[in-house]
């Protein structure tokens, strides 16, 4: 597919003519981050600031009353507010908040708040929720209506006629976002009619309105600043409970309040990736064709709906039928999390595809290609297969067994995503007489490298180096950005920055035309010089040219243009694992991802995204699971010691390959798609190594040992 | 956080005089000994203990003593980083060095001490949750028994099913170490093996014989003798840092193709470092082959009584035992 080319306005230049874009460019804030100099909302301190803490009832469900007086009686506790009346619905749901002179006093205050509560019966597991006489979670009941799709009769018929059939259930537990910076804000309000909110958010421009409402101010007078933020992964789109509490406390105290979740709050009540249970019945014929696919899916999103994902997951069975329903429990609501629904759907689909390929004895890559019509997946599967060493691998259509101590295997999985931008963002670029250039857009940088990208786009247009441009982002006094969710950021902000840079260049060229004594169309900006295209040997340095500008400088503005971005990406991953047959340890040795995403504007930060996604996928595959005690209603691993995410020892060799055969000449976002296939690819690799099929995530040693024992029993 | 006084006594007598004199298990308000603080500060922050006084050992001279002659003498304040880095120690007491380096993270090991490691409290999810008043904290019920017990004991459990979290403990028991403790009443040296107590033996609220006013002063490790080799194999669910799901401290003396003698102690599976004497006796004089290792592993786990979610620890520990023998073969 070829991108739309325009000659009458801004367009992305041909790839091989790019000087700044499409070249590895280290992120602007790298040094500051390494040195600890980068200021996150957590690090902000302003004069007179108080520290806030949330208060919650220590059971999943209760009727409660709050008495703030004992907290306010503590010397140093300055403000206390109620956040909720009546009943709580899940453990960790905040009912009050306090603010004090120090974090320690705030904790003392929070613990001193008197909660009088009557515990109510709860249902925190799907079994409890579906049991006879279960306490009700939502008004509509403890499960949603079944949403069917497809042809049930034809699917049953095709299943009955298939050479091989599987009927298995795949389980994915609730996973947490684990943002290294917890949710919350510093609300800098000191009385009066203005406020500044330093927020850890994915949507800076959503904050002023919401905060203004709580503070009782005019939205115009509330500013949000997100200089750096420590991850959101889909969970940080609103002012949220800690933000609302900070504003209420600040309003009461007439002083700034910083309130960011404790790690425990974060695990209990800041959202999660919904779990899922999928019963899969699927069939294939010996010729390697998928005949039928039937999936019954239960989404486990707590009091929320949970995420389903595409049905089927991109493979093309002869006949298919799907049912989906949400089961509600008295647990924190799921939220969007990096490719909502997709990893769960991919884990079930890709495991089932694998199981069928082995049943009919067909090469795992060949089987996949035979059931996917889109050639992009074919070439991406071939590429990751080559990179992971598939062609020399001994177990391509039957699993290995290992040497009695260890076994090695390879697994595959694919993904798909949108990644296009949308309207709403605007940008300005200004050029000063001293040669300085500022590129301005209010967008927040979640850690993806947007700040760097903004500078690169302007630099490319003006013939400068990325470091010559000062990117100004993360502030609502700047031209508006968009919410960073759905991998839309690059697609939403690149067009306005590009257009603003283009317009600034045009204006500068008009200004320089008389000085260079040529028509403005002939003015060229290259390698920090400006010159007449007909006499490239003469001309001005960038600084000389800028010195001719009026004091106010010159600039341009830009809005979004659909033609400068696009949507629709594929992806394929392969994983190589080593299974310790004595202990059940799965060690991932290597992960490979091949991903298309149009014109890759900064390959370095692109690879960081893909590598980070592979690591997050590895965490979901091997470690991550929320553990609750079903009788006591307690969260048992609500901390970073017990909720395990990968550490340095777990990181395998990571290979992030740009699918260069994708010649679309516009950028597409890449934040989400590479997180999808990892868990499935790793589960499939475990089976390929030693024959142990683990159908529930995470693939912990206990499950691997149980699967190996079952194999041994079956001979 | 409950306000506490931080005391810096300058000698052992001053330290013990600041500790409670009663004989019962420590109450949450009782004074606590502070060494590296890597466990105790977590307990304070989680409100599991709220002492009025913390007694730091850091100004008492000599407690960080480290003497490596034939034998090894370690003061209670020697850090795990020191134990892990000394090359002469590693050569002769490999199991101890390997155990030390398997603990937590490099940052923690520079603070964490030997005494604190041996006296640290359990990691059972319920113990660490303020809202779960289980037997270990003076309550009436063991919640792990019928609850989420994936990480709990398969050997020696009841009425509490914790596993002892220390990695140094199995290694030092394997080396037949002794421990010296002191109270106002006097100083005593006992085998480290008898320092730790099962919940069914001593008080279920503590993990060792140390009384409220006693201090651990140090450990003495006798030389293993010529011909011995040792190793510590720890299985962590997450290798970067994690407590043991199971661990094996093994020392063997080989005689040609045979095993002359072996010492085998298991970690992560019982409320105390679990010495597998039947397996030790069995392998003495047997050929150093996989079938011997396997039979020894079976014997070591023969008495295991798994709970609902931790039966995997049986094959896991058996696998680790075989891997340890193989490593030393
Ligand atoms: C993230 C994390 C991971 C960890 N991983 C591991 C692991 O893998 N393996 C492992 O073994 N441990 C692990 N630990 C526990 C770690 O805290 C201990 O290993 C450490 O050695 C404790 O030593 P300390 O000096 O810091 O003890 P402190 O915290 O100071 O003391 C611990 C306890 O011992 C008592 N105490 C200390 N010294 C004496 C003494 N001389 N006499 C009497 N009582 C004393 C204290 O009163 C307290 O109750 C981990 C801890 C953390 C936080
Ligand atoms: S195992 Fe011990 S610490 Fe854990 S719940 Fe039972 S009694 Fe409490």
Q: What is the strand and helix layout of this fold?
A:
The complex is a heterodimer of chains A (715) and B (329).
Chain A: H1 30-35, E1 50-56, E2 62-67, H2 69-72, E3 77-82, E4 86-88, E5 94-100, H3 103-112, E6 114-119, H4 126-130, E7 147-150, H5 152-160, E8 164-172, E9 184-188, E10 195-199, H6 207-215, E11 222-225, H7 240-253, E12 257-260, H8 263-269, E13 275-284, E14 290-300, E15 319-327, H9 342-360, H10 364-370, H11 375-388, E16 406-417, E17 426-431, E18 437-440, H12 450-462, E19 469-472, H13 489-516, E20 523-526, E21 529-532, E22 540-541, H14 542-547, E23 554-559, E24 569-580, E25 586-595, H15 603-622, E26 628-629, E27 634-635, E28 653-658, H16 678-690, H17 701-714
Parallel strand pairs in A: 1-12, 10-11, 14-15, 18-19, 25-28
Antiparallel strand pairs in A: 1-5, 2-4, 2-6, 3-5, 7-15, 8-13, 9-10, 9-12, 13-14, 16-24, 17-18, 17-23, 20-21, 21-22, 24-25, 26-27
Helix pairs in contact in A: 6-7, 9-16, 12-13, 15-16
Chain B: E1 5-7, H1 12-17, E2 32-34, H2 40-45, E3 53-56, E4 66-68, E5 72-75, H3 80-85, H4 87-92, H5 94-101, H6 106-111, H7 114-119, H8 143-146, H9 168-174, E6 178-183, E7 186-191, E8 215-221, E9 228-236, E10 244-255, E11 258-267, E12 274-275, H10 277-283, H11 290-300, H12 313-328
Parallel strand pairs in B: 1-3, 2-3
Antiparallel strand pairs in B: 4-5, 5-8, 6-7, 6-8, 9-10, 10-11, 11-12
Helix pairs in contact in B: 5-9, 10-11, 11-12
Bound molecules: flavin-adenine dinucleotide and iron/sulfur cluster.
């Amino acid at each position: 597919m070829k991108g739309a080319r325009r000659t009458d306005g801004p367009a992305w230049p041909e790839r091989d003519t790019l000087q700044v874009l499409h070249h590895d460019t280290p992120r602007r804030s790298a040094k500051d981050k390494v040195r600890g100099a980068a200021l996150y909302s957590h690090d902000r301190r302003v004069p007179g600031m108080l520290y806030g803490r949330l208060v919650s009832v220590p059971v999943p469900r209760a009727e409660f009353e709050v008495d703030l007086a004992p907290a306010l009686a503590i010397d140093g506790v300055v403000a206390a507010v109620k956040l909720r009346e009546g009943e709580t619905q899940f453990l960790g749901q905040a009912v009050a908040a306090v603010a004090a002179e120090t974090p320690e006093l705030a904790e003392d205050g929070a613990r001193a708040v008197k909660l009088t509560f009557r515990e109510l019966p709860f249902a925190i597991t799907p079994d409890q929720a579906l049991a006879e006489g279960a306490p009700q979670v939502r008004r509509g009941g403890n499960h949603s209506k079944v949403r069917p799709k497809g042809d049930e009769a034809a699917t049953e018929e095709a299943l009955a006629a298939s050479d091989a059939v599987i009927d298995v259930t795949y389980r994915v537990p609730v996973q947490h976002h684990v943002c290294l910076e917890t949710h919350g804000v510093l609300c800098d309000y000191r009385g009066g009619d203005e406020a500044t909110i330093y927020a850890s958010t994915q949507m800076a421009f959503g904050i002023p309105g919401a905060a203004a409402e709580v503070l009782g101010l005019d939205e115009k007078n509330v500013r949000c600043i997100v200089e750096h933020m420590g991850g959101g992964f889909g969970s940080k789109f609103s002012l949220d409970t800690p933000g609302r509490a900070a504003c209420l406390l600040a309003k009461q105290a007439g002083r700034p309040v910083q309130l960011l979740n404790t790690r425990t709050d974060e695990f209990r009540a800041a959202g999660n990736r919904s779990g899922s249970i999928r019963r899969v019945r699927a069939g294939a014929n010996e010729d390697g064709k998928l005949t039928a696919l039937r999936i019954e899916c239960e989404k486990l999103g707590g009091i929320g709906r949970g995420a389903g994902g595409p049905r089927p997951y991109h493979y093309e069975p002869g006949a298919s039928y799907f049912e989906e329903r949400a089961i509600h429990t008295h647990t924190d609501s799921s939220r969007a999390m990096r490719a909502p629904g997709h990893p769960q759907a991919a884990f079930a689909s890709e495991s089932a595809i694998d199981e069928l390929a082995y049943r009919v004895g067909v090469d795992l890559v060949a089987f996949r290609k035979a059931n996917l019509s889109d050639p992009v997946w074919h070439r991406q599967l071939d590429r990751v297969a080559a990179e992971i060493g598939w062609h020399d691998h001994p177990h391509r259509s039957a699993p290995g067994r290992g040497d009695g101590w260890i076994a090695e295997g390879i697994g595959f999985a694919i993904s798909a995503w949108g990644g296009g931008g949308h309207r709403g963002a605007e940008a300005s670029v200004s050029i000063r007489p001293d040669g300085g250039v500022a590129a301005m857009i209010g967008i927040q940088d979640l850690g993806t490298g947007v700040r760097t990208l903004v500078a690169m786009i302007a630099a490319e247009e003006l013939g400068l180096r990325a470091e010559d441009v000062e990117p100004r982002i993360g502030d609502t006094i700047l031209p508006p950005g968009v919410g960073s969710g759905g991998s839309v950021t690059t697609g939403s902000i690149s067009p306005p920055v590009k257009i603003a840079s283009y317009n600034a260049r045009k204006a500068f060229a008009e200004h320089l035309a008389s000085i260079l004594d040529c028509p403005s169309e002939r003015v060229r900006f290259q390698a920090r010089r400006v010159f007449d295209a007909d006499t490239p040997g003469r001309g001005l340095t960038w600084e000389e040219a800028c010195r001719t500008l009026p004091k106010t400088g010159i600039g341009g503005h830009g809005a979004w243009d659909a033609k400068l971005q696009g949507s629709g990406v594929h992806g394929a991953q392969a994983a190589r694992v080593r299974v310790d047959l004595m202990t059940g340890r799965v060690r991932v040795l290597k992960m490979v991802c091949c991903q298309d995403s149009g014109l890759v504007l900064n390959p370095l930060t692109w690879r960081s995204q893909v590598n980070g996604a592979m690591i997050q996928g590895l965490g979901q595959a091997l470690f991550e699971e929320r553990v609750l005690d079903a009788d006591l209603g307690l969260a048992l691993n609500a901390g970073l010691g017990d909720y395990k995410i990968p550490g340095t020892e777990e990181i395998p060799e990571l290979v992030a390959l740009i699918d260069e055969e994708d010649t679309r000449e516009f950028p597409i976002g890449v934040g989400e798609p590479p997180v999808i296939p990892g868990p499935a690819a790793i589960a499939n690799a475990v089976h390929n190594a030693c024959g142990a099929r683990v159908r529930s995530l995470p693939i912990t040693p206990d499950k691997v040992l149980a699967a190996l024992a079952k194999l041994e029993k079956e001979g | 956080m409950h306000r506490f006084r931080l005391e810096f006594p300058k000698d052992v007598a001053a330290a013990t005089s600041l500790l409670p004199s009663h004989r019962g298990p420590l109450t949450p308000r009782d004074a606590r000994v502070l060494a590296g603080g890597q466990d105790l500060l977590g307990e304070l922050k989680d409100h599991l203990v709220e002492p009025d006084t913390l007694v730091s050992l850091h100004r008492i001279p000599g407690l960080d003593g480290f003497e490596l002659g034939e034998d090894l003498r370690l003061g209670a304040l020697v850090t795990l980083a020191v134990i892990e880095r000394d090359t002469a120690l590693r050569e002769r007491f490999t199991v101890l060095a390997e155990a030390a380096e398997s603990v937590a993270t490099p940052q923690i090991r520079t603070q964490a001490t030997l005494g604190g490691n041996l006296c640290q409290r359990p990691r059972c999810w319920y113990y660490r949750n303020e809202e779960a008043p289980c037997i270990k904290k003076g309550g009436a019920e063991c919640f792990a028994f019928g609850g989420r017990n994936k990480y709990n004991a398969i050997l020696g459990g009841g009425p509490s099913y914790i596993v002892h979290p220390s990695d140094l403990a199995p290694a030092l028991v394997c080396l037949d170490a002794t421990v010296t403790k002191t109270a106002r009443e006097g100083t005593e040296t006992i085998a480290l093996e008898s320092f730790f107590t099962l919940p069914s033996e001593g008080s279920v609220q503590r993990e060792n014989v140390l009384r409220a006013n006693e201090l651990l002063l140090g450990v003495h490790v006798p030389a293993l003798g010529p011909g011995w080799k040792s190793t510590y194999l720890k299985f962590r669910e997450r290798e970067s840092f994690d407590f043991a799901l199971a661990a094996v401290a093994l020392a063997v003396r080989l005689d040609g193709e045979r095993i002359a003698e072996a010492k085998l102690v298991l970690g992560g599976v019982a409320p105390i470092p679990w010495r597998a004497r039947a397996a030790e006796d069995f392998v003495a004089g047997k050929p150093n082959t996989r079938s011997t290792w396997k039979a020894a592993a079976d014997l070591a786990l023969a008495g295991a009584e798994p709970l609902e979610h931790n039966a995997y620890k049986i094959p896991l520990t058996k696998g680790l035992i075989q891997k340890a023998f193989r490593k030393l073969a």
